[in-house]
Amino acid sequence: MSFKRIAIFCGSMTGNEPVFANQARALVAQLAKHNIGVVYGGGRIGLMGVVADAALDAGLEVVGVIPHALMQKELGHGGCTQLHVVDTMHQRKALMSELADGFIALPGGFGTADEMFEILTWAQLGMHQKPCALLNVQGYFDGLLRWLDEAVARDFLRPLHRELLLCHDDPIHLLAVMQRAAAHIPHAPATSAPDIR
Predict the structure, then answer these.
(1) pLDDT tens readout for residues 124-182
(2) What is the CATH number of the domain that holds 154?
(3) In terms of Cα–Cα distance, which of 49, 43, 2 is closest to 21?
(4) Interatomic CA distance for residues 57 and 176, integer angstroms
């Protein structure tokens, strides 16, 4: 599977260290080497703005998806190749999922986690077979990964589903891992009543 576009979930803040923005730009640089477009949350601030500006500077297609409420706060990026304005946060995630061939979360807060975990849940249910990954900048997601491993150990999450979330601290290797996973992502067979643990 070749990626036409990858959705990037990331924060509306840049964090307290330059490495977060630098690694966001490094990821976009790798996407540019493979001419992979970006789908993102449509904002002009925080890591969202960093990603969009870097992708536009690299000549990539940049598709933003933003809810009306955030657009009205003048947070929308005016330079996107396309900017879809939707009614709800759920519509935002659904359209981003439809437009992208894979998903990467950068450091962020509640919104970033919400986006990635909904996409992961859809993968768990067999609703898509697109790779989902974290760019683990300076161990930012280490605590999250430990929690998921604990969920497996305590029998709240199947190992099969834990494997749906890919992770690397290097953008080059992360894209390679996603490419390998794209052909075959493990998921539970569809049943009339899926076990979503």
Answers:
(1) 999 999 999 999 999 999 999 999 999 999 999 999 999 999 999 999 999 999 999 98
(2) 3.40.50.450
(3) 49
(4) 23
